[in-house]
Structure formats: structure tokens, C-alpha cells
Amino acid sequence: MMGLESKHIILGVTGGIAAYKSAEIVSRLRRLGADVHVIMTRNATEFVAPLTFQTLSGNQVVTDTFQTPENWQVEHVALAQLADAFLVAPATANMLAKMACGLADDMLSTTLLATKAPVFVAPAMNTGMWEAAATRENMSRLQARGVKVIGPGTGKLACGDVGAGRMSEPAEIVEALQAYFAEGEDYRGLRVLVTAGGTRERLDPVRFMTNDSSGKMGIALARAAQGRGAAVTLVYGAVTQPLPEGVSCIPVESARDLLRVMEKETPRHDIIIQAAAVADFRFRDASDQKIKKNGQHEITLVMVENPDVAEAVGRLKKAGQTLVGFAAETGHLEENAEGKLTRKNLDLIVANDVTRPGAGFNTDTNIATLIWRGGRQEMPLQQKTELAGKILDRILALRKEGR
């Protein structure tokens, strides 16, 4: 996926510790043929010298509304009009608040207010700031205006906290821009339902059985579909990733919970992508009180089969709907996947061997085979964010063929 050749990208760099990562963003964009112009806030220059970005971009870096321009133009207007896309990375809570309120008190905020180009932000801040009510409200306002949000990720932050708020990696940010220019909004008008994460089957109020799913693949698919213009509903179980902004999110716990939601939501959607890892069995005799040892040295737990959610969704399929399933296998990959494709009335199945390094649960990468009736496509090791875009490409191709 390319899409950035000769595109004019304005990169706004604000005053956060993640500003050093923005240098890699410039490098990646330049390697893909983009023309990059950098605007830095005064605070950003305390973290990275403007000369770094000037050297990497090959263009003068703008840091001051009143600095002498290279060409005698009104600089913020010239850059605003030049932009094919405007990216703010890192986007601090302060800059997001300015954007939400329409403030224009420095070169970056002034140019943002003047541009008609699509705007992308990669938030970066302390977890408490990201979760604050004011930031939530600002993000809602920006997204309602069409601002596209990349991340943030979850992990250990510079302040020592662990949680949401760290800026997405440069590769993910550049991939989001590539996807936008490569496909535009080819999912506009489509309603996409995605499931993600693992289900949990309760033994008692403090114990449950689950699996290693992190929800990364399903959330990547939801974000990618949203970025391409779809109206997205995400049904999620246990996940380790921040939920995408601007997506309708429905939490579930058990397989039976998921079944009830899917029976309600499936008829309303055009494309159903079932990436959740659903438990095949549940405890027959779950307790509503914590189970005590009471002198026992062993305990026998009886399990019963859960309903097959994907099979139930397949029975609900209507003309014009596209159903996508996942097959996480440890052997006989294609044989098992092709069986599920037929048995569950799917149009496409994403099969992967979870025993392979870099594939499967709780990783940022995946290795997969896309299988449909009469075709297959191998997907080598790649980021799940990249694989999500390719899965969406294949779905559109199948729909165009009338499948």
C-alpha cells in the first residue's frame, strides 16, 4: 500500500516527550515520496531542535507566526492551502483543547484553523489527562467535525504510569495516512459490525475461564473500517487495547452474551467481521458464591458446549450481507478453515496458525491466509493494522463480485 507519492503533508509537532518519534514519521513519509512541512510549537523545540526536522524534511521548519517566510506569503494560509493532509503528532491535551475550541494563538493552531485538508491527530499524554472529562469532550467535538484519531496506545508512559495515552508508533501513524490516500473512504455508506477480544465463562464471582486474545486484531479492523468511512459497531469481550473513538461499542462477557447481541445487531449491518475468540465450552454448574476448599483436595468441574455464535449468525444472513470469520488453529489449518467457511455460511475466513512466532493471540503482528470460495491469499508476517486494511480490501473485492 503506497498512496503518499507527491502528497503534501503538514506535520504539527507539539511539546510532548513523544516529539522525538515525530522525526521517524518524517523519515518514513519522505521514503514514501511525500513532501513534508513541519510546524513546531515553541514547547516542541524544547524537546527536539528544529534543525532535525529541517534536515529530514528538506523544508524550512516553521516555529513562529512572525518569523520571516522563505517566500513572501502569509505562511499559515500558504501551508493550510498546500496541505493534502494535516497530521498533529504528538497531539497534546493542550493542542486538542485549542483545536476543539477553535483557538488560533500560535502558528500551528492558526494553520489548523485555516486548513480545509483532512486532519489526523495522534494523541500523547498522561493517562489521567487522556481519561479526563474535558479531554473526552474535546475528542468528541473533534471527531464530530471529521478529525481522524490515530491511537493512543497503551503501555508504560514517560511519567512512569502504565495505561492509555502513549502516542502510536510512527509505523502505525504512517500506515493510517497511507490507508486514507490509498482507499479514501470506500466504505462510506456501509455498516460494519466487528467482534473483538476473548469471552469469559464464569465459575464463580471471582473465577472464570478465558483465552489469550487481546482484541488487537478486531480493534484494528474496527479502526480501519471507520477510517474508510464505515459506520462501525464494535462488540468486545476482554481486550487489552483502548477502544476506538467514534465507534459504537457494546461490551459482552460470555459466549451467550455475545450471541444475544449478535442476534440483535446482525440484521442491521452490511458486513459482519467476527474476530472475537469465543469460548467453546462453559461450566455447567457455575456458582453465585465463591467456591471454598472446605477440606477438599480436588474438585470435578463439568463443562457443556456453548452455542456456536458464528453458525447462528450464518443462519441469519440476508442477501447483500458479507460474513467474515476467523480460524485460530494449531494444526490442519486450511482443512479446518475451509470446513468452517462452509459450515458457518461465511464469505471469507481469516485463518492463522497461532503456534507460529509472530502470529495469533496478544501480538502486534500476524501471519494469515485469507480463504474464500474459489480463492485464497497468503498474508506473510505483518502488523495487524496492515493486515486489517488488506482484509477490508478483500471484503470489498468479494462484494463487487456479488458474493
Short characterization:
With 403 residues, the chain is of the alpha/beta class. Helices cover 34% and strands 25% of the residues.
What features would you describe in this structure?
The structure is a single chain. The chain has 403 residues and is α/β, with parallel strands linked by helices. The protein folds into two domains: 8-183, Flavin prenyltransferase-like (Rossmann fold); 191-400, CoaB-like (Rossmann fold, 3-Layer(aba) Sandwich), CATH 3.40.50.10300. 34% of the residues lie in helices and 25% in strands. The chain has 13 helices and 19 strands. It has an eight-stranded mixed β-sheet with strand order 12-11-8-13-16-17-18-19, with helices on both faces. Helix 1 (19-31) packs across helix 8, helix 3 (75-82) packs across helix 5 and helix 9 (216-227) crosses helix 13. The chain starts with 7 loop residues before the first strand and ends with a helix. The mean pLDDT is 89.
